[in-house]
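Note to self: keep these together.
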Amino acid sequence: MTKIYSWNVNGIRAVIKKGLWDPFIKAEQPDIICLQETKAKQEQVELEVPGYSQFWYSADKPGYSGTAIFSKTAPLQVINGFPQDIIDQYSVSGDVYGDPNKEGRVMAAEFDTFWVVTVYTPNAKDDLSRIPLRHTQWDPAFLAYCKQLETGKVAGATIGKPVAFCGDLNVAHTEDDLANPKPNRGKKGFTDEERGGFQALVDAGFVDTLRLFVQGNGHYSWWSHFARARERNVGWRIDYFLVSESLKDKVKAAAIHADVFGSDHCPVSVTLNI
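Structure:
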């Protein structure tokens, strides 16, 4: 069995400073850890994770964004960012906020029988000014990239392999994925464009693993800092694990770990019979 965890840490140095990183590792014992919003370069972090190989993809901008993958089994290769052909095909060149290709937002690690991808999807912003980037560039580019990995049409790959991707996708897919859908309809994280981007992943054959085991609302991975939202479980599910259709029968468990603190997000996980 392979246990893979995903966690938007909202600053890895803050989690370490709070003394909450080591308890997480000791309690959960993941085989692979995918992080988002690390907000640091590797050399800025005093972090020893015995038994794990570490791979970091940090943003050019200090203290911003960034992803990482830690794994007990060394991957065959790790790819940082979208390939240039994906960037060119979907014009993922950025907007007034900057170039998402310089923000450390997506990593892919190849293992013997599958790919693991971690992603920190750009936020649409309160005024929805990053919706054009999301709708016409990032979301379709990410889907195309995952399909490339599946089919082996990516540099360095000899054969296609199924994909397990995870991370902060910055969208609640359905009304069951946030506590208050009606007042949030049309706002960032719950626009038709963002939800459509997620639905395109499902339509392309990727399986939302949590929904293999639980239905309905109340299952959230992010909470506002205001009004005791986490204590009252008034949250959003914006952190996901999706897998290729060919991996569906190998998914033995999927969970949200709301009892793990240290960030405004909690970890999510999947256990694969691989």
